[in-house]
Fold this sequence. Notes:
globular; two-stranded antiparallel sheet; mainly alpha; 97 residues; 48% helix; 5 helices
Amino acid sequence: MLCIMFKLAKCLPIDYFEDYFTLRTQIHSYPTSLSASSNLICKLHPKTSYGYATFYYRAINMWNNLPLDLKDITSLVSFKKELKSYLLTKQNTRLRI
């Protein structure tokens, strides 16, 4: 899921998702309080509880919650490697608590 979001955020073409997600930079280019968050993907709030379980909502939430250093990576191979390391570290931290 996050690899798809990486490709979309880095403008790598995925035909099926081409118009499915919107980058904040596609909406406006002026500086805001969220400018530091590179490639923040906009989301709509679901109107039903089923909406929170959709790929659309969950993928955007996961992407937007990643640390900036992960979102700033330019290579898909590097992103996968760093993402795996980040997720394993995050999981190990949760298990210790």
